[in-house]
Amino acid sequence: MITTTRSEELFERARKVIPGGVSSPVRAFGAVGGTPLVLESASGAEVTDVDGNTFLDFVGSWGPLILGHAHPRIVQAVAETAARGTTFGAPCPLELQLAERVTGMYPGLDQVRFVSSGTEATMSAIRLARGATGRELIVKFAGCYHGHADHLLVSAGSGLVTFGEPSSAGVPAAFAELTLVCDLDDIAGVEQLFAKRGSEIACVIIEPIPANNGLLVQRTEFHERLRSLTTEHGALLIYDEVINGFRLGRGGAAERFGITPDLATFGKVIGGGLPVGAFGGRRDLMQQLAPNGPVYQAGTLSGNPVAMAAGLAALDVLEEEDGWKRLEALGAGLEERVAPLLAKRDWTLVRQGSIFWMSLQAGAAPRRADAIDAGAADTYREIFHGLQQAGICIAPSAYEVGFLSLAHTEAHLDRFASALSGLLA
Ligand code: PMP
Questions:
Q1: CB of 241 closer than 6 A to ligand 1?
Q2: Is 325 in the active site?
Q3: Which of these is catalytic: 49, 57, 185, 240?
Q4: Distance (Å, rounded) from C-alpha 411 to C-alpha 413?
Protein backbone atom coordinates (compact mmCIF):
# COMPACT_ATOMS: atom_id res chain seq x y z
CA MET A 1 0.00 0.00 0.00
CA ILE A 2 1.28 3.44 -0.88
CA THR A 3 1.25 5.78 2.11
CA THR A 4 -0.15 9.25 1.47
CA THR A 5 -0.35 10.67 4.99
CA ARG A 6 1.41 13.93 4.18
CA SER A 7 -0.74 14.49 1.06
CA GLU A 8 -3.82 14.01 3.22
CA GLU A 9 -2.57 16.47 5.84
CA LEU A 10 -1.70 19.15 3.31
CA PHE A 11 -4.91 18.69 1.35
CA GLU A 12 -6.92 19.06 4.54
CA ARG A 13 -5.11 22.33 5.25
CA ALA A 14 -5.58 23.49 1.66
CA ARG A 15 -9.33 22.94 1.90
CA LYS A 16 -9.49 25.59 4.60
CA VAL A 17 -7.96 28.32 2.47
CA ILE A 18 -8.59 27.21 -1.14
CA PRO A 19 -12.10 26.18 -2.27
CA GLY A 20 -12.09 22.40 -2.59
CA GLY A 21 -8.38 22.51 -1.81
CA VAL A 22 -7.54 23.01 -5.49
CA SER A 23 -6.85 25.72 -8.03
CA SER A 24 -8.76 23.82 -10.76
CA PRO A 25 -11.70 21.51 -9.96
CA VAL A 26 -10.78 18.18 -11.59
CA ARG A 27 -7.65 18.00 -9.44
CA ALA A 28 -9.82 17.37 -6.36
CA PHE A 29 -10.36 13.71 -7.37
CA GLY A 30 -14.14 14.19 -7.15
CA ALA A 31 -14.67 11.80 -10.04
CA VAL A 32 -12.50 8.99 -8.69
CA GLY A 33 -12.67 9.51 -4.94
CA GLY A 34 -9.81 9.56 -2.47
CA THR A 35 -7.33 12.31 -1.68
CA PRO A 36 -5.33 13.95 -4.45
CA LEU A 37 -1.60 13.36 -4.38
CA VAL A 38 0.08 16.58 -3.40
CA LEU A 39 3.09 16.77 -5.68
CA GLU A 40 6.45 18.08 -4.67
CA SER A 41 8.66 17.60 -7.71
CA ALA A 42 8.85 15.95 -11.09
CA SER A 43 11.41 14.90 -13.63
CA GLY A 44 11.04 13.31 -17.06
CA ALA A 45 8.08 10.93 -17.01
CA GLU A 46 7.83 10.80 -13.22
CA VAL A 47 6.25 12.83 -10.47
CA THR A 48 7.04 12.63 -6.75
CA ASP A 49 4.53 13.39 -4.03
CA VAL A 50 5.09 14.95 -0.60
CA ASP A 51 5.25 11.48 0.98
CA GLY A 52 8.20 10.60 -1.23
CA ASN A 53 6.29 8.24 -3.55
CA THR A 54 7.31 8.40 -7.20
CA PHE A 55 4.80 7.70 -9.97
CA LEU A 56 5.03 7.16 -13.69
CA ASP A 57 2.92 10.00 -15.04
CA PHE A 58 0.53 9.97 -17.99
CA VAL A 59 -1.19 13.24 -17.07
CA GLY A 60 1.65 15.54 -18.07
CA SER A 61 -0.01 18.52 -16.38
CA TRP A 62 -2.94 17.94 -18.78
CA GLY A 63 -0.94 18.32 -21.97
CA PRO A 64 1.71 21.03 -21.91
CA LEU A 65 4.64 18.80 -20.96
CA ILE A 66 5.41 17.31 -24.34
CA LEU A 67 9.10 17.00 -23.40
CA GLY A 68 8.33 15.58 -19.96
CA HIS A 69 8.73 17.27 -16.58
CA ALA A 70 11.56 19.71 -15.88
CA HIS A 71 13.24 19.15 -19.22
CA PRO A 72 16.79 20.58 -18.91
CA ARG A 73 16.34 22.78 -21.98
CA ILE A 74 13.16 24.34 -20.62
CA VAL A 75 14.66 24.81 -17.17
CA GLN A 76 17.72 26.44 -18.69
CA ALA A 77 15.68 28.71 -20.99
CA VAL A 78 13.48 29.81 -18.10
CA ALA A 79 16.39 30.42 -15.70
CA GLU A 80 18.53 32.32 -18.19
CA THR A 81 15.66 34.43 -19.43
CA ALA A 82 14.28 35.18 -15.96
CA ALA A 83 17.69 36.43 -14.87
CA ARG A 84 17.34 39.19 -17.49
CA GLY A 85 13.83 40.19 -16.41
CA THR A 86 10.61 38.21 -16.15
CA THR A 87 8.27 40.72 -17.76
CA PHE A 88 8.65 44.08 -19.42
CA GLY A 89 5.14 45.03 -20.49
CA ALA A 90 6.83 46.01 -23.74
CA PRO A 91 7.69 44.20 -26.98
CA CYS A 92 10.56 41.70 -26.66
CA PRO A 93 12.57 39.69 -29.20
CA LEU A 94 11.49 36.30 -27.80
CA GLU A 95 7.83 37.11 -28.45
CA LEU A 96 8.70 37.99 -32.03
CA GLN A 97 10.69 34.77 -32.41
CA LEU A 98 7.87 32.60 -31.13
CA ALA A 99 5.36 34.44 -33.34
CA GLU A 100 7.55 33.95 -36.41
CA ARG A 101 8.04 30.31 -35.53
CA VAL A 102 4.40 29.37 -35.02
CA THR A 103 3.06 31.35 -37.96
CA GLY A 104 5.47 29.32 -40.10
CA MET A 105 4.13 26.06 -38.72
CA TYR A 106 0.34 26.19 -38.58
CA PRO A 107 -1.88 26.38 -41.70
CA GLY A 108 -3.32 29.83 -42.39
CA LEU A 109 -1.74 31.42 -39.33
CA ASP A 110 -0.78 34.79 -40.80
CA GLN A 111 -0.65 36.53 -37.44
CA VAL A 112 -0.81 35.48 -33.83
CA ARG A 113 -1.32 37.17 -30.50
CA PHE A 114 -0.13 35.73 -27.19
CA VAL A 115 -2.19 35.49 -24.02
CA SER A 116 -1.69 33.57 -20.78
CA SER A 117 -4.17 30.68 -20.95
CA GLY A 118 -6.30 28.65 -23.30
CA THR A 119 -9.40 30.26 -21.84
CA GLU A 120 -8.16 33.71 -22.78
CA ALA A 121 -7.28 32.48 -26.26
CA THR A 122 -10.76 31.13 -27.05
CA MET A 123 -12.52 34.04 -25.36
CA SER A 124 -10.50 36.50 -27.42
CA ALA A 125 -10.94 34.58 -30.68
CA ILE A 126 -14.69 34.59 -30.20
CA ARG A 127 -14.77 38.30 -29.48
CA LEU A 128 -12.75 38.81 -32.63
CA ALA A 129 -15.11 36.61 -34.66
CA ARG A 130 -18.10 38.59 -33.40
CA GLY A 131 -16.38 41.90 -34.00
CA ALA A 132 -15.23 40.97 -37.49
CA THR A 133 -18.58 39.56 -38.65
CA GLY A 134 -20.88 41.92 -36.76
CA ARG A 135 -22.88 38.85 -35.68
CA GLU A 136 -23.60 37.60 -32.17
CA LEU A 137 -24.43 33.88 -32.26
CA ILE A 138 -21.75 31.27 -31.82
CA VAL A 139 -21.99 27.53 -32.38
CA LYS A 140 -20.18 24.97 -30.26
CA PHE A 141 -20.43 21.20 -29.89
CA ALA A 142 -21.63 19.20 -26.93
CA GLY A 143 -18.67 17.75 -25.10
CA CYS A 144 -16.13 20.22 -26.47
CA TYR A 145 -14.42 22.27 -23.77
CA HIS A 146 -13.03 25.66 -24.66
CA GLY A 147 -12.11 27.02 -21.26
CA HIS A 148 -14.36 28.79 -18.81
CA ALA A 149 -15.38 32.07 -20.45
CA ASP A 150 -19.09 32.66 -19.79
CA HIS A 151 -20.41 32.08 -23.30
CA LEU A 152 -18.39 28.88 -23.69
CA LEU A 153 -19.55 27.22 -20.47
CA VAL A 154 -22.62 25.97 -22.24
CA SER A 155 -23.24 22.32 -22.93
CA ALA A 156 -25.90 20.58 -24.95
CA GLY A 157 -29.26 19.38 -23.89
CA SER A 158 -30.37 16.30 -25.74
CA GLY A 159 -31.89 16.47 -29.18
CA LEU A 160 -30.66 17.42 -32.60
CA VAL A 161 -29.86 21.03 -31.94
CA THR A 162 -30.73 22.75 -28.71
CA PHE A 163 -30.51 26.25 -27.50
CA GLY A 164 -27.81 26.62 -24.91
CA GLU A 165 -28.40 26.16 -21.22
CA PRO A 166 -25.72 27.49 -18.89
CA SER A 167 -23.70 24.67 -17.36
CA SER A 168 -22.35 26.82 -14.57
CA ALA A 169 -24.14 28.99 -12.07
CA GLY A 170 -23.24 32.60 -12.69
CA VAL A 171 -23.54 32.44 -16.48
CA PRO A 172 -26.43 34.75 -17.38
CA ALA A 173 -29.12 33.08 -19.45
CA ALA A 174 -28.86 36.00 -21.86
CA PHE A 175 -25.23 35.02 -22.60
CA ALA A 176 -26.03 31.34 -22.90
CA GLU A 177 -28.77 32.08 -25.42
CA LEU A 178 -26.15 33.35 -27.82
CA THR A 179 -24.38 29.99 -27.77
CA LEU A 180 -26.00 27.32 -29.92
CA VAL A 181 -25.00 23.75 -29.23
CA CYS A 182 -24.81 20.99 -31.83
CA ASP A 183 -23.80 17.35 -31.55
CA LEU A 184 -20.51 16.11 -32.86
CA ASP A 185 -20.69 13.71 -35.82
CA ASP A 186 -24.11 15.12 -36.73
CA ILE A 187 -23.65 17.26 -39.80
CA ALA A 188 -27.40 17.28 -40.55
CA GLY A 189 -27.97 19.06 -37.25
CA VAL A 190 -25.44 21.74 -38.12
CA GLU A 191 -26.90 22.11 -41.62
CA GLN A 192 -30.38 22.61 -40.20
CA LEU A 193 -29.13 25.21 -37.78
CA PHE A 194 -27.36 27.12 -40.56
CA ALA A 195 -30.45 26.87 -42.77
CA LYS A 196 -32.43 28.64 -40.03
CA ARG A 197 -29.96 31.09 -38.54
CA GLY A 198 -26.89 31.09 -40.79
CA SER A 199 -26.86 34.84 -41.32
CA GLU A 200 -26.70 35.47 -37.54
CA ILE A 201 -23.83 33.07 -36.80
CA ALA A 202 -20.44 34.67 -36.18
CA CYS A 203 -18.48 31.45 -35.83
CA VAL A 204 -18.36 27.76 -35.23
CA ILE A 205 -15.80 26.75 -32.64
CA ILE A 206 -14.68 23.15 -32.37
CA GLU A 207 -11.89 21.08 -30.91
CA PRO A 208 -11.00 19.42 -34.21
CA ILE A 209 -10.04 16.31 -32.25
CA PRO A 210 -12.29 16.64 -29.23
CA ALA A 211 -10.26 15.55 -26.22
CA ASN A 212 -12.15 16.86 -23.21
CA ASN A 213 -14.97 14.36 -23.10
CA GLY A 214 -13.21 11.21 -24.05
CA LEU A 215 -11.34 11.34 -27.32
CA LEU A 216 -14.09 11.71 -29.91
CA VAL A 217 -12.38 11.37 -33.26
CA GLN A 218 -14.45 12.97 -36.02
CA ARG A 219 -14.77 11.85 -39.62
CA THR A 220 -12.91 13.99 -42.15
CA GLU A 221 -16.20 14.56 -44.06
CA PHE A 222 -17.66 16.17 -40.95
CA HIS A 223 -14.80 18.64 -40.83
CA GLU A 224 -14.98 19.29 -44.57
CA ARG A 225 -18.67 20.09 -44.36
CA LEU A 226 -18.15 22.41 -41.38
CA ARG A 227 -15.57 24.26 -43.46
CA SER A 228 -17.86 24.62 -46.47
CA LEU A 229 -20.98 25.48 -44.44
CA THR A 230 -19.25 28.27 -42.51
CA THR A 231 -17.78 29.70 -45.72
CA GLU A 232 -21.14 29.59 -47.52
CA HIS A 233 -22.80 31.50 -44.70
CA GLY A 234 -20.04 34.03 -44.03
CA ALA A 235 -19.36 32.57 -40.58
CA LEU A 236 -15.85 31.90 -39.28
CA LEU A 237 -14.46 28.50 -38.40
CA ILE A 238 -12.37 28.47 -35.23
CA TYR A 239 -10.22 25.44 -34.43
CA ASP A 240 -9.51 25.18 -30.73
CA GLU A 241 -6.11 23.51 -30.88
CA VAL A 242 -5.23 24.10 -27.24
CA ILE A 243 -4.62 20.35 -26.83
CA ASN A 244 -3.75 19.27 -30.38
CA GLY A 245 -1.71 22.27 -31.46
CA PHE A 246 2.02 21.56 -31.82
CA ARG A 247 1.40 18.13 -30.26
CA LEU A 248 -0.03 16.16 -33.17
CA GLY A 249 2.53 17.70 -35.46
CA ARG A 250 3.67 21.12 -36.60
CA GLY A 251 0.26 21.99 -38.00
CA GLY A 252 -2.00 20.42 -35.38
CA ALA A 253 -5.31 18.89 -36.37
CA ALA A 254 -5.71 21.40 -39.21
CA GLU A 255 -2.78 19.83 -41.01
CA ARG A 256 -4.03 16.34 -40.23
CA PHE A 257 -7.43 17.03 -41.80
CA GLY A 258 -6.04 19.26 -44.56
CA ILE A 259 -8.40 22.05 -43.54
CA THR A 260 -7.48 25.67 -42.84
CA PRO A 261 -9.64 27.36 -40.20
CA ASP A 262 -10.15 31.14 -40.20
CA LEU A 263 -8.89 31.41 -36.63
CA ALA A 264 -7.19 28.97 -34.28
CA THR A 265 -6.49 28.95 -30.57
CA PHE A 266 -3.51 27.46 -28.79
CA GLY A 267 -2.20 26.80 -25.30
CA LYS A 268 -0.40 24.03 -23.43
CA VAL A 269 2.52 22.91 -25.67
CA ILE A 270 3.06 26.41 -27.05
CA GLY A 271 4.06 27.56 -23.56
CA GLY A 272 6.47 24.74 -22.72
CA GLY A 273 4.77 24.32 -19.34
CA LEU A 274 4.42 28.01 -18.51
CA PRO A 275 1.12 29.91 -18.64
CA VAL A 276 0.73 30.72 -22.33
CA GLY A 277 -2.09 30.76 -24.82
CA ALA A 278 -2.33 32.23 -28.28
CA PHE A 279 -4.87 32.89 -30.99
CA GLY A 280 -4.38 33.77 -34.58
CA GLY A 281 -5.33 33.26 -38.18
CA ARG A 282 -6.18 35.27 -41.26
CA ARG A 283 -4.44 38.62 -41.47
CA ASP A 284 -7.60 40.58 -42.36
CA LEU A 285 -9.29 39.22 -39.24
CA MET A 286 -6.33 39.72 -36.93
CA GLN A 287 -6.04 43.30 -38.18
CA GLN A 288 -9.39 43.94 -36.52
CA LEU A 289 -7.69 43.71 -33.12
CA ALA A 290 -6.65 46.77 -31.15
CA PRO A 291 -4.51 48.80 -31.74
CA ASN A 292 -5.23 48.41 -35.50
CA GLY A 293 -8.94 47.73 -35.26
CA PRO A 294 -11.96 48.03 -33.02
CA VAL A 295 -11.80 44.67 -31.18
CA TYR A 296 -10.16 45.19 -27.81
CA GLN A 297 -7.89 42.56 -26.30
CA ALA A 298 -4.91 42.94 -23.96
CA GLY A 299 -2.82 41.38 -21.16
CA THR A 300 -0.26 42.60 -18.61
CA LEU A 301 1.85 39.45 -18.79
CA SER A 302 1.06 38.51 -22.40
CA GLY A 303 4.16 37.65 -24.42
CA ASN A 304 6.46 37.86 -21.39
CA PRO A 305 9.99 36.69 -22.20
CA VAL A 306 10.12 33.77 -19.75
CA ALA A 307 6.99 32.12 -21.13
CA MET A 308 8.07 32.79 -24.70
CA ALA A 309 11.50 31.26 -24.04
CA ALA A 310 9.90 28.12 -22.61
CA GLY A 311 7.63 27.77 -25.65
CA LEU A 312 10.54 28.25 -28.03
CA ALA A 313 12.66 25.71 -26.16
CA ALA A 314 9.85 23.14 -26.40
CA LEU A 315 9.51 23.66 -30.15
CA ASP A 316 13.31 23.62 -30.61
CA VAL A 317 13.65 20.24 -28.91
CA LEU A 318 10.71 18.82 -30.86
CA GLU A 319 12.41 19.85 -34.11
CA GLU A 320 15.90 18.72 -33.11
CA GLU A 321 14.81 15.33 -31.82
CA ASP A 322 12.31 14.48 -34.55
CA GLY A 323 9.84 14.77 -31.69
CA TRP A 324 6.55 14.33 -33.49
CA LYS A 325 7.74 11.17 -35.21
CA ARG A 326 9.02 9.77 -31.94
CA LEU A 327 5.76 10.61 -30.19
CA GLU A 328 3.79 8.85 -32.91
CA ALA A 329 6.01 5.79 -32.49
CA LEU A 330 5.51 5.86 -28.72
CA GLY A 331 1.77 6.20 -29.23
CA ALA A 332 1.79 3.25 -31.60
CA GLY A 333 3.78 1.30 -29.02
CA LEU A 334 1.22 2.07 -26.36
CA GLU A 335 -1.61 1.05 -28.65
CA GLU A 336 0.12 -2.23 -29.51
CA ARG A 337 0.40 -3.10 -25.84
CA VAL A 338 -2.84 -1.74 -24.42
CA ALA A 339 -5.42 -2.18 -27.19
CA PRO A 340 -5.36 -6.01 -27.00
CA LEU A 341 -5.82 -5.87 -23.20
CA LEU A 342 -8.88 -3.67 -23.58
CA ALA A 343 -10.17 -5.68 -26.55
CA LYS A 344 -10.54 -8.73 -24.31
CA ARG A 345 -13.44 -6.89 -22.70
CA ASP A 346 -14.63 -5.40 -25.98
CA TRP A 347 -13.22 -2.02 -24.95
CA THR A 348 -11.15 0.25 -27.17
CA LEU A 349 -7.99 2.30 -26.95
CA VAL A 350 -8.60 5.53 -28.86
CA ARG A 351 -5.37 7.21 -29.89
CA GLN A 352 -4.28 10.20 -31.91
CA GLY A 353 -0.51 10.52 -31.90
CA SER A 354 0.57 10.92 -28.29
CA ILE A 355 -2.96 11.48 -26.95
CA PHE A 356 -4.87 8.43 -25.75
CA TRP A 357 -8.13 7.50 -24.09
CA MET A 358 -9.45 4.20 -22.84
CA SER A 359 -13.04 3.77 -23.98
CA LEU A 360 -14.35 1.37 -21.33
CA GLN A 361 -17.58 0.41 -23.05
CA ALA A 362 -18.51 -2.35 -25.45
CA GLY A 363 -18.50 -1.73 -29.17
CA ALA A 364 -17.01 0.96 -31.37
CA ALA A 365 -15.44 4.02 -29.79
CA PRO A 366 -17.97 6.85 -29.45
CA ARG A 367 -17.87 9.90 -31.73
CA ARG A 368 -20.16 12.15 -29.73
CA ALA A 369 -20.51 13.06 -26.07
CA ASP A 370 -23.90 11.44 -25.48
CA ALA A 371 -22.64 8.13 -26.83
CA ILE A 372 -20.33 7.72 -23.84
CA ASP A 373 -21.64 5.17 -21.36
CA ALA A 374 -21.80 6.87 -17.94
CA GLY A 375 -21.32 3.47 -16.26
CA ALA A 376 -17.76 3.35 -17.57
CA ALA A 377 -16.81 5.89 -14.90
CA ASP A 378 -17.18 3.20 -12.18
CA THR A 379 -14.83 0.87 -14.01
CA TYR A 380 -12.41 3.74 -14.56
CA ARG A 381 -12.36 4.56 -10.86
CA GLU A 382 -11.13 1.05 -10.05
CA ILE A 383 -8.51 1.14 -12.76
CA PHE A 384 -7.37 4.58 -11.65
CA HIS A 385 -6.80 3.49 -8.04
CA GLY A 386 -5.30 0.16 -9.07
CA LEU A 387 -2.77 1.94 -11.26
CA GLN A 388 -2.00 4.47 -8.55
CA GLN A 389 -1.19 1.63 -6.16
CA ALA A 390 1.11 0.27 -8.86
CA GLY A 391 2.88 3.64 -9.01
CA ILE A 392 1.21 4.97 -12.15
CA CYS A 393 -0.82 8.18 -12.53
CA ILE A 394 -3.56 8.59 -15.10
CA ALA A 395 -6.05 11.46 -15.17
CA PRO A 396 -8.51 11.47 -12.23
CA SER A 397 -11.56 11.32 -14.49
CA ALA A 398 -12.89 8.80 -16.99
CA TYR A 399 -13.50 11.58 -19.49
CA GLU A 400 -9.95 12.92 -19.60
CA VAL A 401 -7.30 11.77 -22.02
CA GLY A 402 -3.74 10.65 -21.30
CA PHE A 403 -0.59 12.21 -22.70
CA LEU A 404 2.74 10.75 -23.73
CA SER A 405 5.89 12.84 -23.75
CA LEU A 406 9.37 12.50 -25.19
CA ALA A 407 10.45 11.42 -21.70
CA HIS A 408 8.38 8.24 -21.93
CA THR A 409 10.19 5.10 -23.01
CA GLU A 410 9.21 1.66 -24.25
CA ALA A 411 10.00 0.38 -20.74
CA HIS A 412 7.44 2.83 -19.33
CA LEU A 413 4.86 1.53 -21.78
CA ASP A 414 5.65 -2.03 -20.71
CA ARG A 415 5.13 -1.03 -17.09
CA PHE A 416 1.78 0.56 -17.85
CA ALA A 417 0.59 -2.42 -19.88
CA SER A 418 1.72 -4.91 -17.28
CA ALA A 419 -0.03 -3.05 -14.44
CA LEU A 420 -3.20 -2.71 -16.50
CA SER A 421 -3.08 -6.36 -17.49
CA GLY A 422 -2.87 -7.33 -13.81
CA LEU A 423 -5.91 -5.19 -13.01
CA LEU A 424 -7.98 -6.56 -15.85
CA ALA A 425 -7.06 -10.21 -15.22
N1 PMP B 1 -9.53 24.63 -25.00
C2 PMP B 1 -9.23 23.35 -24.87
C3 PMP B 1 -9.43 22.43 -26.04
C4 PMP B 1 -8.73 22.86 -23.67
O5 PMP B 1 -8.44 21.55 -23.56
C6 PMP B 1 -8.54 23.74 -22.59
C7 PMP B 1 -7.99 23.28 -21.26
N8 PMP B 1 -7.89 21.97 -21.03
C9 PMP B 1 -8.87 25.09 -22.78
C10 PMP B 1 -9.35 25.51 -23.99
C11 PMP B 1 -8.67 26.09 -21.67
O12 PMP B 1 -7.32 26.26 -21.43
P13 PMP B 1 -6.83 26.81 -19.99
O14 PMP B 1 -7.11 25.75 -19.00
O15 PMP B 1 -5.36 27.07 -20.22
O16 PMP B 1 -7.58 28.06 -19.74
A1: no
A2: no
A3: 240
A4: 5
Residues 119, 95: Cα–Cα separation, whole Å = 20
Active site residue 240: yes
* Predicted confidence (pLDDT) per residue in 310-365, tens digit: 999 999 999 999 999 999 999 999 999 999 999 999 999 999 999 999 999 999 99
User: Quick one: which atom of ligand 1 is closest to the CA of 119?
Assistant: 16
Give the residue among 414, 417, 380, 391 at the shortest CA–CA distance from 33: 380
Q: What is the pLDDT of residue 162?
A: 45
Atom of ligand 1 nearest to the CA of 24: 14
Q: How far apart, in whole angstroms, are the C-alpha atoms of residue 78 and residue 310? A: 6
Is the pLDDT confidence value at 207 over 70? yes
The pick from 242, 243, 247, 399 for probing ligand 1's pocket by mutation, whose C-beta has the most ligand atoms within 8 angstroms, reads 242
213 lines ligand 1 (CB under 6 A): no
Using the mean position of ligand 1's atoms as its centre, give its distance from the Cα of residue 61 in Å.
12
Which ligand 1 atom minimizes the distance to the CA of 212? 5
In the chain, the domains with their CATH numbers are 5-70+322-424 (3.90.1150.10), 72-319 (3.40.640.10)
119 in contact with ligand 1, CB cutoff 6 A = yes
Is the pTM higher than 0.85? yes
124 pocket-lining for ligand 1 (C-beta < 6 Å): no
Percent of all residues in the chain with a pLDDT value above 70, rounded to a whole number: 97
Distance of CA 29 to the CA centre of its chain: 19
The CA angle 287-290-291, to the nearest 5 degrees, is 95
268 counts as catalytic? yes
Contacts of 319 by beta carbon, 8 Å cutoff, 6+ apart: none
* pLDDT computed for residue 153 by the predictor: 84
pLDDT above 90 for 163: no
CB 60 within 8 A of CB 70: no
Using only the alpha carbons of the chain, give its radius of gyration.
Answer: 21
